[in-house]
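Sequence and structure are kept together here, with a separate record for every protein. A complete record is shown below as an example:
=====
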Amino acid sequence: MEAVLNQPESLKLTIINRSFWPNYPVIGEALLRFAEDAAEHGHRVSVIFCGTTKVVENLEQIDRGQGVSFYPMKERTSSSSALIVRILGSILFAFWVLIKLLAIRPDRIYVSTDPPIVVPFITMLYCKYSGASFVYHLQDIHPEAANVVMPIHGWLYGTLVKVDSLTMRRAESLITITKQMADEICFRSRTTAPTHILNNPAISFDNIDLGKLKERGFSFCGNVGRMQRIPLILGAIEAYLIQGGKLKFTFAGGGVYADQLNSFAKKFELFEYRGRVDPIEAAQISANFAWALLPIEDEVTRYAFPSKSSSYVLSGAKILAVCDPQTSVAKWVCENTVGVVVVPEIDALVSTFFEIEQGTLDITSNIQLRNALTHKLGFDQFVDALHRIVLQ
């Protein structure tokens, strides 16, 4: 009887995230598991996302999503769409969210920064006038993260910051990835809501071959955009190869530097560019190599954390972070002994490449720390944490 009395009351929970299963096998799968977990605990769960009705059919075919209601809006954009098209897509999704919230009338909402600012703000307004509560998961902080690489007009930037800060102050609790991001959130918004730090999960490596002998070289799997220091990395690789370097480099991912990477691959035999690949193939590429490149603009680390870092850890690759040693990314790499940090300079990178090639780079690795981090990056730990934060 005591166990029954201590059970939390049944909630009408809605999960809002534009990305979902199966197109997004990391965060999409994690949120699907969270939805299933909440439904198993007696909560009435719905999910609002972008996709097609086939998602629901596919879930039924594999006996997933039991007890969960799904409300997909047809996806009309991709990461390669023009900026204005993606903005319009986010606005359409915001209207979809509002319509569905008014129809479902949940009393607890989990909402993320996918897409940022507008959808969380609409969620906040719904909660303010309905008496519901919401948990705001900031997987990156906008508009600051976007402003680093593509400056936003002054008055618009200020308005977006104020809108998102208001959303943060109204949230029942907040979730983000690093202590530095949590500090930025509290400083900017002056929120008094509890702020939880939670690692994003890594893709499942159950079907990835981790037993094969790793190639001597580097992988890079992720967005090849402005935040990833791609011109600097290519400059260092070119200098290294021209000087006789023998390590191989394989890049995968789409973004603004895709054409430049294609041209670079035609120029150097030891450089390969796979283009955009699915997450399973990206995970296998990471697992094939002894090292993984993790370049990031220093300023961005205050507002975001590279998602590919989790998969790199589970792949067993050592990480070469290219950033200032004082950034949160550098501290994460060093504290968990998963690799080394190199300052973002061509000469420093070339020197490190040669040290790795010659086997003279001293890396202190703590297996227990890495295993503990691997455990934290699992789906079960992510779902358990969401359950504690959102439902209790």
